[in-house]
Design brief:
CATH class of the largest domain in chain A: Alpha Beta
CATH topology of the largest domain in chain B: Rossmann fold
CATH class of the largest domain in chain B: Alpha Beta
Distance between the termini of chain B: 74 Å
CATH architecture of the largest domain in chain A: 3-Layer(aba) Sandwich
Structural class of chain B: alpha+beta
Oligomer: heterodimer
Largest sheet of chain B: 10 strands, mixed
CATH superfamily of the largest domain in chain B: P-loop containing nucleotide triphosphate hydrolases
Structural class of chain A: alpha/beta
Number of domains of chain B: 4
Number of domains of chain A: 3
CATH architecture of the largest domain in chain B: 3-Layer(aba) Sandwich
Strand content of chain A: 15-25%
Number of strands of chain A: 21
Shape of chain A: elongated
Distance between the termini of chain A: 84 Å
Radius of gyration of chain B: 27 Å
Chain lengths: ~475, ~575
Amino acid sequence: MKEYQTITEVSGPLVFAEVDEPVGYDEIVEIETPDGETLRGQVLESSEGIVSIQVFEGTGGIDRNASVRFLGETMKMPVTEDLLGRVLDGSGNPIDGGPEIVPDKRQDIVGEAINPYSREYPEEFIQTGVSAIDGMNTLVRGQKLPIFSGSGLPHNELALQIARQATVPEEEATGDDDEGSEFAVIFGAMGITAEEANEFMEDFERTGALERSVVFMNLADDPAVERQVTPRLVLTTAEYLAFEKDYHVLVILTDMTNYCEALREIGAAREEVPGRRGYPGYMYTDLAQLYERAGRIEGREGSVTQIPILTMPGDDDTHPIPDLTGYITEGQIVMDRDLNSQGIEPPINVLPSLSRLMDDGIGEGLTREDHGDVSDQMYAAYAEGEDLRDLVNIVGREALSERDNKFLDFADRFEQEFVQQGYQTNRSIDETLEIGWDLLSMLPKEALNRIDEDLIEEHYREDAGEEAEAVSAD
Amino acid sequence: MSQAEQTETVDEDGVIESVSGPVVTATDLDARMNDVVYVGDEGLMGEVIEIEGNLTTIQVYEETSGVGPGEPVENTGEPLSVDLGPGMMDSIYDGVQRPLDVLEDKMGTAFLDRGVDAPGIDLEKKWEFEPEVEEGDAVEPGDVVGVVEETVTIDHKVMVPPDYEGGEVTSVESGEFTVEETVVELDNGEEIQMHQEWPVRQARPAGDKETPTEPLVTGQRVQDGLFPLAKGGTAAIPGPFGSGKTVTQQQLAKWSDADIVVYIGCGERGNEMTEVIEDFPELPDPQTGNPLMARTCLIANTSNMPVAARESCIYTGITIAEYYRDMGYDVALMADSTSRWAEAMREISSRLEEMPGEEGYPAYLAASLSEFYERAGKFQLINGGEGSISVVGAVSPPGGDFSEPVTQNTLRIVKTFWALDADLAERRHFPSINWNESYSLYKDQLDPWWEENVESDWSEVRQWAVDVLDEEDELQEIVQLVGKDALPEDQQLTLEVARYLREAWLQQNALHDVDTYCEPDKTYRMLTAIKTFNDEAFDALDAGVPVEEITDIDAAPRLNRMGTAEEYEAFIDEIESDLEEQLRALY
């Protein structure tokens, strides 16, 4: 391994060095500053005679006398089952004071794409215990379902609730394999504040979840460039545990917005042609290379389910970060500021939320026969109620027909009884659907045009309509 | 990618000069534009995209991590080509026509490794060749010399390649052969195999384009009924995420009455392709009853697969489509999504440091898009027959904003526009095709087909529906201000009729076994049933019946069940007579 003292330029997170032997693209580089500090980086462009290097820990302290070493390999993550229960920094070094990690193997962090032919279509229902998700936007094993949130909204509480409660009910019933139904949680923090990090850690420790978790922490004051690496370490660990050690892995990545900011920063330092709002043109491909590392593989036991969290700048879902994410992920859970200020916990707005893999994960034998119809009908009824709210502001409730008033009541109760549940309540899918029927029974039977007639006969509460009428007449 | 002839013309090797992501430059490489090259020690496949003095720029179809300057570049001397021959139906390829099932075998892992190549069609497999010419027959390019049963649905026609001269047949074989064995010889020494190669960036020759007059029946009411696509036509489906682009595309791939379907998953989700791979072999083709996969070719270059191969997958797909068109088939090609293709062009272009056009896209974006869509059409074939390619391109506009370059440049070319609407999707109105924004310029030229094959008053009934929906759109604006009850009674009734048009007719449940496919007769019948309600209801209103009483009748809500009714004819007849009876009883 040759050492060079040939740095010609340092610019933002980039270092340019002259070399006299070929260096591979993406190779790992170590830079030793005159103070004796060792920084790590990666080759961004390799030409005859000169390479540009992106330094993960920031370029502070590097001068033209710093020495550069090319390690001759691309970045690897040491993986082992013993990682469970450990806390690492954003570059994968333990920070919990525990013993050194003895790797089982070292795996390339730029994962290879899963052959679409080798994938298995995800269709196992995950019960999160959250009605707005289970009932309306069902999560399945191997899905990537992001939470679209905004600054100051309780997305962390929701993520923790899911991490705590997520189970696959079927396996619970067979009962012989307790571990199988629980998830190994891999938590990747990118640029979150120390305070937020403490909240997560406290919750992990309090609930004992840490034992089956691996935590990667890149905090707000850690170098931004490191955020490029953190999610790849997380996903490499997840893939190893899922596809080689048969774990069902739940990956929580927060906050993807910080990741994209780091991407933009590096793009700007490289003087690339920027795309929308200054983000690099390849951001779609880059994000896809993270999100697509979720899924199931035929013939393997484990699975990788992803819940990335992002905060939408200005609550705008057309901003490039949520926009590109939504085009790659299999749906989204959207947090709503209005619902939050009304005290709804969790403040999930189901209308813009979506789970693309829901249809194959629910129904007879999976959840319940009426699940799809009930969810469809509640969507349609809630949307109608929402529309009517605008109208009520102008013409008042009296000007509306009886039918319209019922839809208005439905929308209110939907938020207060179905969505509202608190972060400690764990509802089974049966409970969720029964609440659904309680609410739907406020509406006249003929209005339930999305539900099969037999199912209406079976579940519709005949007396509920009158009760609701009595209430609204008061 | 073709391996058949690559050993013949190996030109001088070059040396890598620099590597930046998928773009590699090499020196001393003697190559032409668009030649395929093998890059580095691992032999990664790439294509020459720029030549400047001694410097050649290559886009590489695989990950380039670890590749460095000094490694060799080997030229094949051939442009990027596809292998054409029996065995393409019922297969799944990546963007450069490597079969993904073969790759899984060869790589021995579920992950896509690098530097592994495989021919697009099985070179070992023997096919039963039935000749259709005899010794002494004169044949010209494009002529069919024999037939192979490719799948239960598709007879694969073996043709004289378009770049041959043609002549008199001197010998004909019959029986089992591999695709590389000669089955017909001509007097000028030309040998015909079941296998052809064709460069993907070059359209296969065909005669004149004709005006399409037959609809591509999709089995989807809103599309067949209001915004039809012709066989040989072009359509775009733009929509923000979550509006149902992929479901709409898949519905077309499943139910449209094309002979052949080429489905390109371009830069989209891996699980979506898996869904198609798992579902299509199980689903019956509505025309033949055979598995859908028997008429389908899948091209899957998912979003995390190399970006350069995403750029080429569109060309791979359309070339395969043209080959089946040359056999005289009606081919439907679905590209999901063309925006990802455009983005791949943008990514490569920016690595080449080309001067960007609008929103960073290369200045040749519009030209590339129109070149692609122009390969669709209903054609006179060079062998005198007829064949068509219909192209449906999904577009994923950033932020759902249709004013962006890919949507706008696409709309300038395509004649059918299915605008997907996030608002409709949010209230679970699917397919979420917005009836106010969408259009089809084929409507008039397809009406005669409908009048002949479905019912003679088709165009009037459809126009009635369009008028009611238009009127509803206007009335809704007033309702937003003053409420529904402030409207005159006849307008309230129009709103009610429009609601049935939307909920009972335009909405269609892709997940329901019956409703997922709606034949043209049923589309027409459902519409006339709603019109019956309209006519009877207005008669009642004229006779002085209050509008609440009219809308309250039992029979009307049952219109919503027409789509899912198994024996729809009897079911609709019954509703109609109930409607008449109940409405007439009111006065």
